[in-house]
Amino acid sequence: MEMNPIVEEALQPMPVTLFFFFIAPLLFLFLLSRLRPDPPGTGQASKAIRRSVPPADGVPPHGGGVSSPDVARQVLQVQDHLFSNRPATIAIRYLTYDRADMAFAHYGPFWRQIRKVCVIKLFSRKRAESWESVRDEVDSMIRTVASSTGSTVNLGELVFALTRNITYRAAFGSSSHEGQDDFIMILQEFSKLFGAFNIADFIPWLGWADPQGLHERLAKARSSLDGFIDSIIDDHMHKHKTRCHKDSDEDQEPTTDMVDDLLAFYSEEAKVTESDDLQSAIKLTRDNIKAIIMDVMFGGTETVASAIEWAMAELMKNPEDLKKVQQELSDVVGLHRRVEESDFEKLTYLKCALKETLRLHPPIPLLLHETADHVEVAGYSIPARSRVMINAWAIGRDPNSWSDPETFKPSRFMKENVPDFKGSHFEFIPFGSGRRSCPGMQLGLYSLEMAVAHLLHCFTWELPDGMKPSELDMDDVFGLTAPRAIRLMAVPTPRLLGLVY
Ligand code: HEM
Ligand SMILES: *[C@@H]1O[C@H](CO)[C@@H](O)[C@H](O)[C@H]1NC(C)=O
C-alpha cells in the first residue's frame, strides 16, 4: 500500500517505557476533552483559559479553552490574526489532502483566496441554484411527511436526510441522486475517522503500532472518495466540452452546481497570487475541489440538521411557544397556502425561537483554533501552535450575559439590544466570529427557516404514545457537532386546508 507522507511521518518507533510516563496522562486529558463543555458559571475571565487538550503534530501539550465572551472577543476579534489557524489531527490532514480545503487550510494567501471563491461563487445569495435546491428538497420532504400522516415519524432521521439531499444536490446537481447511498457511506466513514482517537496524534513515534488499523482505513476511505468524486468531475468536464462545441443557439445560462463553479478555477497545478481578479488569483487542483466539496458536506449537513431537530424538539417541549409560532404562521401566511420566503420577515416569533435554539444548542459547540505565533491574552502567555477551543455552548449559557440561561425562552429575543448572532456580540456566537467564522451562515439560516416553517405550518405534531412534553429527553451528544442523543419522534397531522401538499 502506498503511504502518504503525512501518515508516514508518524511511523517511527519509540521506547516502550515512554508509554507509561506520557501516554496515560495524555489519554486522560484526551478523555476529559471529550466530555461535555463546562457547565455554566465557569465564565469568569480568571478561569477562562485552562490547560486542556494536547495538540496534534507532536507539539508539547499546550492549549486552552475559552468560555467567556470577553476572552472570546480577544481571540476572535482583537487578536484574530494570531488565532486563525485550525488544529488538525493526522486523520484530518490526510483526509483533507493535507489541508487542501478551506476549513483546515492555515490562515494565509491560499486560505484567503479559497475563502473568496467559496463566499463569492459557492455560498453567495447570487448563486440561486443553492437556494432553489433548498426549496425543492423541503417540498419533497413535506410530501414524504404528508404520506405518513397519523403515524410516528423519526424527525431526526428525516431532517438529516433532508439536509443531505440539499447539500448533495447543491454540490453535484440534480441529475445525480443515484450514487448518493455510496457517498453517504463514504461520509460516514470520514466522520468516524475524524473522531477516531489516534495515539500517533499525541505521541508521533507511537504511530508504528497503529492498533486500530487506522492507516489502512484512512487510505481506503480516501481512495473511495477519489473514485466517487473523480467520476463526477470527469462527467462535469465532459459536459463542459460538449456544451462549448454546440450551444450558440442556447442563449439561456445553463444551471450550474458547485463542481461546475469550482471547475472554472481548475488547473493541473495549484496556484495562488494576491491578484484582485479572482480568476487569475487562484487555480485549484482536483484535490482542492474534492476537499472543498467535503467541507460543504461536513459544514453544511449535520449542522443544519441538528439545528432543525433541536428547534422542533424545544418547541414540542414548550407547547406555549409552539402555539405562538403556529398562530403567527396562521396569521401571516394563512392556512390556504404554503410559506414563502417573502413571509419570513414577518415571522418574528419563529425567528426568535430559532435564535433561542442556536443559543442553547449551537451545532458546533466548540470552535477549534490554533495560534500561529506566540500570543498574550487575558494575562496568559500562549505559545505558537497551541490549540484554543472557544466554548460557544458555555458562552450561550453564561449567567453573566443571559438571565435564566438554561430556559428556552424565545421572547428574550423580542427585547431591544439583545445580542445578535452576526458575530459582533460575543455573548452569542453560534456561527463564530471574525476571519474564520462560518461562510455558509446565510445558506444555513435559509435552510433552517424554510424547513422549520414548513414543518410547523403544514402539520400539527404530537408526541407518540401519549408521551408528555416534559418527558422529552433533551440530552445532546458531544462531538465535533452536538446533535440530540435520542432522535425526535413525532406524529404529524395535516394542518392546511385544500390540496396544498
Ligand atoms: C445552522 C447552520 C450552521 C452553523 C451553526 C455553522 C457554524 C459554523 C461555525 C461555528 C464555524 C466555525 C467558526 C470558527 O471556528 O470560529 C463554521 C465554519 C464553517 N462553516 Fe458553518 N455553520 C452552519 C452552516 C454551514 C453551511 C450551510 C455551510 C456550507 C454550505 C458551512 C460551511 C462552513 C465552512 C466551510 C466553515 C470553515 C470556514 C473556515 O475555516 O474558514 N456552514 N460554521
Ligand atoms: C432524499 O432523497 C432521496 C433520493 O432522491 C429520497 O428517496 C428521499 O425521500 C429524500 N429524503 C427527504 C427527506 O427528502
From TrEMBL:
PROSITE patterns reported in the protein's UniProt record: CYTOCHROME_P450 (PS00086)
Residues of the region (Disordered) are 42-67
Q: Which cofactor does it need?
A: heme
Q: Does the keyword Oxidoreductase apply?
A: yes
Residue ranges of the TM segments: 12-32
Q: Which sites bind heme?
A: C438
Q: Which GO terms describe its cellular component?
A: membrane
Q: Which family does it belong to?
A: Belongs to the cytochrome P450 family.
Task: Kindly provide the name given to this protein in its UniProt entry.
Answer: Ferulic acid 5-hydroxylase 1
**Species:** Actinidia rufa
Lineage start = Eukaryota, Viridiplantae, Streptophyta, Embryophyta, Tracheophyta
